[in-house]
Design goal:
- The protein is α/β, with parallel strands linked by helices.
- It has two domains: about 200 residues, Alpha-Beta Complex (2-enoyl-CoA Hydratase, Chain A, domain 1), CATH 3.90.226; about 45 residues, Lyase 2-enoyl-coa Hydratase, Chain  A, domain 2 (Orthogonal Bundle), CATH 1.10.12.
- A seven-stranded mixed beta sheet has the order 1-2-3-4-6-8-11, sandwiched between helices. A four-stranded mixed beta sheet has the order 5-7-9-10.
- α3 runs parallel beside α4.
- The longest helix has 20 residues.
- The chain is globular and about 70 Å long.
Length: about 270
């Protein structure tokens, strides 16, 4: 994979172990159209096997992070003989697959949200492991305002937000301002609009400086234990922790701590 990959919908730029993937369709508010989802799927598939990448930043151009699914595309499906049922199933399945690719990526993924993230765009941001948002960003699952309950975005939202608050947003169509989103635990860090990229990059660099094998194992353990019964969660996490502690670099790091000397840079 080249260090810099550009196409009409997405840009990928790699530097110092950090891959920045930018949604580059501001004219459509970075809508998750079928072509956009297919391009994202290809990009994440390449990242999944790229050992040189330690952290992924998912950013966007324009005033919106993503406005969700392409409504014009969705309306066009209704002309199909079965009212578009098969096309809608394919679209939502494809979107779910992309979200699960992010979940399964070995690298931590940071969403850099500069503007509105709504419906499936909110789903995309909330699927990422961490969110750094501009102070002017807003999050919403507003499909209900069009008569469409955001059932699939709710899957990601309810994994970041208390169920009652998530259901309120889903049923009212209200936006969640960035400061409130941070207070509720949806957003990790806030930044002024002109410092958003710098703040995101600082977090990415902090994570990228850690032992990559430990971070990858840690993300797997964290994701695996979520939602599990307590005994199952400990069994899953314990097995992965054994795998981690047996790594040579981990042994070296522990010994360095015992010897009161700096651990070797990874």
């Amino acid at each position: 994979m080249p260090d810099n990959l550009t196409n009409s919908l997405i840009r990928r730029e790699d530097q110092d172990g950090i891959a920045t993937v930018t949604l580059a369709s501001p004219g459509t508010l970075n809508a998750l159209s079928t072509p956009m989802l297919m391009t994202l799927a290809e990009t994440f598939a390449a990242l999944a096997i790229d050992d040189s990448v330690r952290v992924v930043i998912l950013a966007a151009e324009g005033k919106a992070f993503s406005a969700g699914h392409d409504l014009k595309e969705m309306q066009a499906y209704r002309a199909a003989p079965d009212d578009g049922k098969a096309q809608f199933e394919t679209l939502f399945d494809r979107c779910a697959d992309v979200m699960q690719q992010i979940h399964a990526l070995p690298q931590p993924v940071i969403a850099q949200v500069q503007g509105v993230a709504t419906a499936a765009g909110c789903q995309l941001a909330c699927t990422c492991d961490l969110i750094v948002a501009s102070e002017t960003a807003r999050f919403g699952v507003n499909g209900i305002n069009l008569g469409l309950f955001c059932s699939t975005p709710a899957v990601a939202l309810t994994r970041r937000l208390a169920p009652g608050m998530a259901f309120e947003l889903l049923t009212t169509g209200d936006f969640l301002p960035a400061d409130r989103a941070q207070a509720l635990g949806v957003v990790n860090r806030l930044a002024p609009p002109d410092q958003l990229a710098e703040t995101t990059l600082a977090l990415a660099r902090q994570i990228a400086a850690k032992d990559p094998a430990a971070i990858r194992l840690g993300k797997r353990a964290f994701q695996a234990q979520l939602g599990q019964p307590l005994d199952r969660a400990y069994a899953l996490a314990g097995g992965i922790m054994v795998e981690n502690v047996l790594l040579p670099d981990t042994a070296a790091g522990i010994q360095a701590f015992i010897d009161r000397r700096p651990a070797k840079a990874q």
